[in-house]
Structure formats: C-alpha cells, structure tokens
Design brief:
Chain lengths: 135, 135
DNA sequence: TTATAAAAGGATAAAAAAGGTCTTAAAAGG
DNA sequence: CCTTTTAAGACCTTTTTTATCCTTTTATAA
C-alpha cells in the first residue's frame, strides 16, 4: 500500500539530477535518463508535464534541453509527487462531496483524513534543495 | 496516491459489520456482502484469507458462517489493511535490503521512512471497537 | 534556406494489477 | 445421503502502469 510508481521514482530522480547541475546548465533528456536509469521516452513524457506546470523549463532545438523552473528550495517533494501521482488521498471517499454516501456516520473517514494531513505535511516540508545535497 | 483499493474498503466494512453483531452471532457471507454492498464471491475470498490469519473464524455447513476471531478491540485498522493490501511501504526501496542500490546516499529514503512510521502509527492506534461504534 | 537538433504530441501496445466470476471440493447437520 | 455453507483454485475482464514509436513543431547554426 502507498507505493510510489516508477513514474514517481523517475520524476523525483530527474528533478534531483537537475537540482544538482550548475545553475543555468541545460540538460538533455538523454543525459537525465541515463543518469537516473530511466527509460528516455517515458521520462520525456514526465518532463513534458513538468514543463507545463512550471517545475522545469524546456528549450527546443540545438542547445535545447531542460532546466529547473525555480530554485530547488522552492520545489517541494509534495509538488513533484502530486504532479505525477495525483493528489494524496488515502481513501476515495475524501475526494469529493457525494462520492461516498457513508460520509457522515462513518468512523473511518477521520482516520484517513489524519493520515492524509500527516503525509502531506511531511512531503510539504521537504524541498529539492535538501534532496539534492550530496554526501 | 495512497488510495485504498476496493478490496481494502470491502474488508474494512466487512469487519466493521461483524464487530457490530451481537457476540457469538454467526453471519453468512451473503448477509455481510449485502450489508456492505460488496460482491459476495469477492468478499468471500477476502474473508477466506482473514480466516487463515485468525482475524475471523469460519464455519462450514449448515449454521455456518463467519465470526470475529478476536474482540473488536484487539483488531487494529493496520492489521486489516495490511492483510489485504500488503505492508505499508511508501517506497519500493524500503522493502528489503539490496532492492535499492541507491540506499546509502539517497536523501529521499529517510522521508519515506518517516511517512511510513507516521501512517503505521495512526493505523495501529485505531481498533475496530472504535470503528464499529454507532452514532 | 537548408540541415540539424531537440522537445511536443499522439497512437499504440505489452505487462501487471485490480476486480470479479465460476466450478468443484470439503465440512457439518439433519 | 441430501442440503447448506465455506474453501480453494482456475479463469476472465477491465483498468492502470509502463513503456515504445512516429510525426510534428520549434529553435539554432551553417
């Protein structure tokens, strides 16, 4: 339960790699894929979606590639995880009003809500500045 | 991310149902399935696996059915969730030594470890005595 | 302007997991 | 031995994951 998918793993490793490059360095998807041991075309898809939401910048053509969209300290683990895996929601019932008819009288709901807030809190407190630190 | 599967939902609802029955009452799988709105044959599979690990007792033949294997207060939410979903492991790398070659120098691992211990702690603290309470 | 480099986007597909059914066997009671 | 009820395993369908391939678009440089 609660396992990160490969997509999530590749995404995190990819962003860590970018965070470890000298500022301004543009990295090819082929470099990133090799360094993170991720399938290149798959990683490319992930980075395309990251470019759309501003986590990375992408540049086409000769000399193109990817850079981080913000400083590593301004990118949280939560943001990257949710970008690829969707929102952190331990129980379907929490998703939206009406999706669970047991809502009111169900004693399990508050437990999941607690789990959710704890996990979100932890992932929100970790930035890629820390994750990229070597040593 | 972190979503409980239907299997997990049915399992929890089924155990809550049993916990709400008068002590000693034997319930048919058909009753439990109807009450929890779960597919009967699917729920039967889940309860078979629960019988093996002692969460429930099963009785065949006329007058047979299922009862809780222990008092509701002695069954934790964690136990039921892990029985159907497998261990709570946010990152594959935590599963076993050697399954991740990045272990030592990886800064993400401690974060997942923290997530794991928080979630396990919460689910361990909730018993079916509380979950079965009505009102 | 032509060639080259690189990401973007779409279509497809294999593999795995989730979700569920069906059939036969075994146990218990009458 | 007949009925009721779970046990066990084979089987099937759908969805999600994990990719791959091909074409298009954008950018650069000769």
């Amino acid at each position: 339960m609660m396992e990160l998918t490969r997509k999530g793993e590749y995404a995190i490793r990819g962003i860590i790699f970018l965070a470890q490059q000298p500022p301004g360095k543009v990295s090819l998807i082929s470099e990133i894929a090799e360094a993170t041991e991720a399938p290149q075309t798959f990683l490319a898809k992930i980075f395309q979606s990251f470019a759309k939401i501003g986590i990375v910048n992408s540049y086409r053509g000769t000399g193109g590639g990817f850079t981080l969209g913000r400083s590593p300290a301004a990118i949280t683990l939560r943001e990257v995880v949710e970008a690829v895996e969707g929102p952190i929601v331990p129980n379907r019932c929490l998703i939206g009003a009406g999706s669970c008819d047991r809502g009111a009288e169900c004693n399990v709901h508050p437990v999941w809500r607690k789990v959710q807030s704890q996990v979100v809190g932890i992932l929100d407190s970790v930035t890629f500045a820390e994750l990229a630190r070597k040593g």
